[in-house]
Amino acid sequence: MTEKMYTYVIIGAGLAGVSAAKGIRDVDDKGSILLIGNEKEMPYDRPPLSKKLWFGKKTVEEIFLHDRAFYDSNKVELSLGVAAIDLNVSKKIVKTDKSGNISYSKLLLATGGTPRVLDIPGGTLPEICYYRTLDDYKSIRGLASEGKKAVIIGGGFIGSEIAAALNVNKVDVTMIFPEDYLVQRIFPADLGNAIQKHYAGRGINILNRDLPVSFEKKAGKILTRTKNGNELESDIVIAGIGIVPAVDLAKKAGLRTDNGIVVDEYLKTSDKDIYSAGDNTSFISAATGDRTRVEHWDNSIAQGTAAGKNMAGERVKYDTIPYFFSDLFEFGYEAAGDINSQHETVADWKKEYDTGVVYYLKDDAVRGIMLCNVWEKIDEARELIRGGKKIKPEQLKGAIAF
Prior knowledge:
The protein is α/β, with parallel strands linked by helices. The chain has three domains: 4-114 and 243-311, 3-Layer(bba) Sandwich (FAD/NAD(P)-binding domain), CATH 3.50.50.60; 128-239, FAD/NAD(P)-binding domain, CATH 3.50.50; 330-396, 2-Layer Sandwich (Enolase-like, domain 1), CATH 3.30.390. 21% of the residues lie in helices and 32% in strands. The strands form six sheets. Strands 1, 2, 3, 4, 5, 6 and 18 form a seven-stranded mixed β-sheet that branches. Strands 8-15-9-10-11 form a five-stranded parallel β-sheet, covered by helices on one side. A hairpin with a 2-residue loop joins strand 24 and strand 25 (365-372). The protein is globular and about 60 Å long.
C-alpha cells in the first residue's frame, strides 16, 4: 500500500500541536507538515470553554487559534475529524481511520488526554457531560437557561470554573466532590474554605465529602444519587473529574510511558524520531527536578514550540516553568511551579483571601507561587522558584512586591 509521505507529522490538533507547527516553521520553511486532529473543528483554545465564553468576554469565533489562511500560508496541511489508530515505529508509518497510512520523517505525539469517566450505574449515559470540547460547551450552553438545574461532579479546576460560570448565568447549581473543600489539591485549607464559603454565599449548593453512586433518566430529568443519601433531579450533569493522558498509541508502539509519554530534556521519546508535547507528556520539571506531567495552557505552548524546533534540527532544552490561571467569580489567580496544598504554605495578603501571594515551600525552598488577584508578576515568581535557595518563611513577606 502506498503511503502519503510528510517530513513532519503531528498527531493532535490542539495548542501543543499547533505550537509545534509554528516551531517547525521557525527553523524549516520547506519541509511538509501534516497536522492530524480527531475533532472536526479548526484548532481552538480550551480555557475559554469554562471561562470567557460564559462571561461574554469572547465569542466562539474568537477562540480558534488561527484562521485557514494561517495554515495555508505556513503550508500546514490539516486532517481534521481523523483519528490515528496505529503507529509502526520501525517503518515510520501512522495508520489513520479515514486517511489511510501516513509516512513520516519526524513525528510529534500531542494527543492530550481523555476525560475520566465515572464507573457507576448510568455513568455512560449520553446526558452525562464529561466536559472537555467545544461541542460540550455548545451542548451545555444550549441547556443553561435561567432557572435550569445543574449538578457538577468534581471540585477541581473544571468543576469550580463551570459552577461559577453557570451560576452567573442564573442556573441553579449543586456541586458534589469527595474532598473537604474546593480545589483542595492546590489551595491551602484556609483559602479553599474561604472560597467555598463565597460559592455558598452565591447560592451554590455544596455537597463536599460526597460522591455520586448512580445516574438515572427520569421524566426528562437526570436523577443523581450520592453516597451520603442525597437525591438530586437536574436538567444538566457535568463531570469534571480530570483527564487520563492519551498514551495508548505510544504504548502499543512500544514507546516508554509512565503517567504520560516519557521524554528527555529535548522532548524526545524513547524513539529518536518521535517527540511528545502537552497534556500527555511526562517530563523533568525545572521547578523540582522531578518527573511530572502538566495539563495547562502555557505548558502546551512552550512544549509544543520547543518540540517543533527540535524536530526541525535544533537542540532546545525544555526548562520552562509553566504557569496556569483560573477565575472563580472575583477571585482570579495565576500560579507557577509545584502548587501542592500538602507543602508548607506562607501567605502574604494585602486583602485576606482576595489579594496577595501564596508561597509553597518544600525542603525550605520555594517550589511554587500563587498570585491571587496580583498581575504581571509571573516572571518574578518563576525566577524565585528557579533560584531554589533556602529561605525562611518570615523572609517571604514582600518577596514579590504588589
